[in-house]
Design brief:
The chain is α/β, with parallel strands linked by helices. It contains 28 helices and 27 strands. The strands form 3 sheets. Strands 15, 16, 17, 18, 19, 20, 21, 22, 23, 24, 25, 26 and 27 form a 13-stranded mixed beta sheet that branches. Strands 3-2-1-4-5-6-7 form a 7-stranded parallel beta sheet, with helices on both faces. It has a 7-stranded parallel beta sheet with strand order 10-11-9-8-12-13-14. Strand 21 (about 590), helix 24 and strand 22 (about 615-625) form a beta-alpha-beta unit. Helix 6 crosses helix 7 (about 125-135). The N and C termini lie far apart (about 70 Å).
């Protein structure tokens, strides 16, 4: 800890911007992360290269998992800048990666609530890996790479890394040579696979408008791009080559792009000393600029969009012994590429390009001028090299698809459980002890009703879809009646109401209002559900009672206990009403909010209950209803694109996920406490700010009678994967008549 603090102090003195990153590095994430939807995918991309190579991966994940939040962490200031610029439209949040202390990691996990952590390339953090797996999340290394230069150092530390590398579920190495390096470092052979290089799946970007405008005005006759140049002397080599070539090509423009921001000023001083006309990307203006000259690209993340203008590309880091840089981006644009002899970090790519005759290699710096001049002179040869380079690059595509398939597999197999802070754990332990005593006392003399009782409940405090499931059953069972507590209603007596009847919120509470508005069954409201059930039977012909939120209502006998488990947040340790062992009492499980099988959740269930059948369901949004008028709007009605969203649910993430599933990214999402009874001033303030509001039917009810215009609630319906099997399982548990 003292060394870490001294390190941060030193970095902050040298670069003031570093100091502002410390809050997030210690696990204090922005306030918007506090209401994160469970079931996120967290991608760690340490710096610029990793962030850019993850763009296509994030696009595919967003398409495959529209309701899952995506978060990206970075480790450097430059990486953060690129992530904010390039990745922000694709993800739900960007933050600095936490320090590898257990308490910091746990704090971040509780905020981000991931189902899978995806680590790009080679970021090996022992506590991060261990805590992610202890929490039941998937862990995947993609685009895995250990360079020639680093491999001996990793091998010397095998005794340490072999313990760390047992935590990932899968390591996708870029090629077979790198896979062997991971094995030499101590990774289990069965976990290391060849997944390809994500940079092969690079999609060409667009040039920055300011540079594009500059080039259109300048109209150079030829453009040479010197990409990712490295110290100590590659900039000198490039400048010397430019001075040698430019007299024969008076319209030549050199785009000089040093690898890192700290090299920008150094390159500028060298250009000044050499007397070469140049301008900096950061100071582009409409003023005159003479050719031949140099555009110093002193920016990050813009180079890839400028390869399209190149007539020839020199890839830096290949003349000096730095292991080379990736040549795939210029290759995708079909550009002729010149490299030095140092391509050790990209050996397999370089070998493939050599075999195809798709690049020009030089042995030393003095040869650079001749190689560039030859390609500028022989445009037919340059075009042929570019075609070969593009073919080479396209033949190796597919790493993104491999990574996505592995991430989806791990996502389905995850069953996250995030450890609460110690005071919460202590409080939950006391709560569970009290619940166990109450159950023993209340089950000793259970009341019975004259018709079968089907309980719909869960193990957590709210948020798993009990109300929609109760209505789903009421629509399918013969002569049903609904028993509910009427949470937070203001009256204390029993209330018996026919299907579709109207009653004041103060008599019923919000959830009972939803049952009444559906018009599918009579509703009985009261603390003593047995007494309310008998009153219902006196007034209506009842063949099936549906006991809403009944898993912990032990006073009433039931024939079927249906337990709902949220697929994205199955067993939140800070919201469990009972210990996990209580799952043994369930007769039927329904995994809700699921878009496919969740073997990880099933595995946790089967540890406690080996026989109860397991079914899947999800909520489907249908349309928006303006509460004040009853007008129905399409889910993606243009008038709602700038509307803010609010809700007061035990698990607000369920509503945020519904919004994401239909493609709505509200500018603001406001979460209130569960069952909030809203004041008119609060809603009026939100309407004044945003113009329109999106919410749930339950929250519309909690606005009270005569709610304002421009507030829209979401009409939803529940659907199951196997309705016939589900209803048959219920029927087989009921007594035979």
């Amino acid at each position: 800890m003292p060394l870490i603090l001294l390190y941060f102090l030193g970095r902050s003195v040298r670069k003031r911007g570093y100091f502002s990153t410390l809050k997030e590095r210690w696990g204090s994430l922005p306030g918007s992360f506090h209401e994160t939807v469970s079931g996120a995918v967290w991608l760690h991309a340490v710096s610029v290269g990793e962030a850019l190579s993850s763009i296509e991966l994030l696009k595919r994940l967003r398409a495959e998992m529209p309701t899952a939040p995506l978060f990206v962490s970075v480790g450097t200031l430059a990486g953060r800048g690129i992530a904010d610029e390039k990745l922000r439209p694709l993800v739900d949040g960007v933050f600095y990666a936490p320090l590898d202390f257990v308490f910091v990691i746990r704090r971040v996990l509780r905020r981000v609530r991931p189902s899978v952590l995806v680590v790009s390339e080679t970021e090996i953090w022992p506590n991060l890996f261990r805590e992610v797996k202890r929490a039941g999340c998937g862990l995947c290394l993609v685009n895995g790479r250990i360079s020639d230069r680093a491999a001996p150092r990793y091998a010397r530390w095998r005794w340490f890394f072999r313990h760390v590398l047992r935590w990932p579920d899968v390591i996708l190495a870029q090629n077979t040579a790198i896979r062997e390096r991971f094995l030499a470092t101590g990774a289990p052979p069965e976990k290391v696979k060849v997944g390809g290089n994500l940079k092969y799946d690079f999609q060409p970007g667009e040039a920055p408008p300011a540079v594009e405008s500059f080039l259109d005005r300048l109209q150079p006759s030829a453009v040479w791009v010197a990409a990712s140049t490295m110290p100590p002397d590659e900039d000198d080599t490039v400048i010397d080559a430019f001075r040698s070539v430019s007299p024969a090509y008076p319209g030549l423009l050199l785009l000089l792009a040093p690898r890192k921001p700290e090299f920008f000023d150094v390159a500028a001083r060298k250009l000044e000393q050499a007397g070469v006309p140049f301008t900096r990307r950061s100071t582009l203006s409409n003023g005159a600029f003479a050719l031949p000259g140099v555009l110093l690209l002193d920016s990050m993340g813009e180079l890839s969009g400028l390869f399209s203008y190149a007539d020839v590309v020199f890839m830096g880091g290949t003349i000096v012994p730095r292991g080379g840089h990736n040549i795939l981006e210029p290759a995708m644009f079909g550009k002729p590429i010149v490299v030095g002899r140092h391509m050790e970090n990209f050996r397999e790519i370089a070998d493939a390009f050599r075999s195809a005759g798709a690049l020009v290699e030089i042995a030393s710096g003095p040869e650079l001028a001749g190689a560039v001049e030859a390609l500028l002179r022989d445009r037919e040869r340059a075009a042929d090299l570019g075609r070969r380079a593009r073919q080479c690059s396209e033949a190796q595509r597919g790493a993104t698809a491999t990574a996505v398939s592995q991430i989806l597999r791990l996502y389905a197999g995850a069953a996250p459980r995030f450890l609460p802070i110690l005071p919460v754990r202590a409080a939950m332990g006391l709560w569970h002890c009290g619940a166990a005593r109450a159950r023993i006392h209340q089950t000793s003399g259970r009341a019975k009703l004259g018709a079968p009782v089907i309980s719909v409940g869960n193990l957590t405090t709210g948020g798993s879809g009990k109300t929609p499931m109760t209505l789903y059953l009421a629509e399918r069972l013969s002569k049903p009646a609904i028993l509910t507590r009427g949470y937070r209603r203001q009256s204390a007596g029993n209330v018996i109401l026919a299907a579709g009847a109207t009653a004041a919120w103060s008599e019923t509470g919000d959830e009972a209002q939803i049952f009444l508005r559906s018009g599918v069954a009579p509703v009985g409201i009261g603390a003593n559900r047995a007494e309310v059930g008998r009153l219902l039977q006196q007034q209506f012909e009842v063949e099936h009672f549906i006991l809403d939120d009944g898993f912990q209502h032990w006073r009433l006998d039931r024939q079927v206990d249906i337990v709902l488990v949220d697929s994205l947040d199955p067993f939140p340790m800070d919201r469990l009403r009972e210990p996990m062992s209580a799952l043994s009492r369930a007769d039927i499980f329904v995994i809700t909010r699921s878009l496919g099988p969740r073997p990880g959740v099933e595995r946790e269930i089967r540890k406690r209950n080996g026989s109860a059948p397991i079914f899947y369901s999800r909520v489907r949004p249908e349309y928006w209803v303006e509460g004040a008028t009853g007008q129905q709007l399409d889910l993606l009605d243009p008038s709602l694109s700038s509307a803010a969203a609010f809700c007061g649910l035990a698990n607000p993430g369920s509503f945020w996920a519904s919004l994401s599933s239909v493609g709505l990214r509200s500018p603001e999402r406001i979460a209130f406490p569960d069952h909030t009874r809203y004041s008119r001033d609060v809603i009026a303030g939100l309407l004044n700010r945003y113009g329109a509001l999106l919410t749930t039917e339950k929250d519309w009810i909690n606005l009270g009678d005569g709610g304002p215009a421009c507030v829209y609630w979401l009409k939803i319906r529940t659907e199951g994967d196997d309705e016939e099997g589900f209803l048959s399982a219920i029927g087989s548990s009921l007594p035979k008549t």
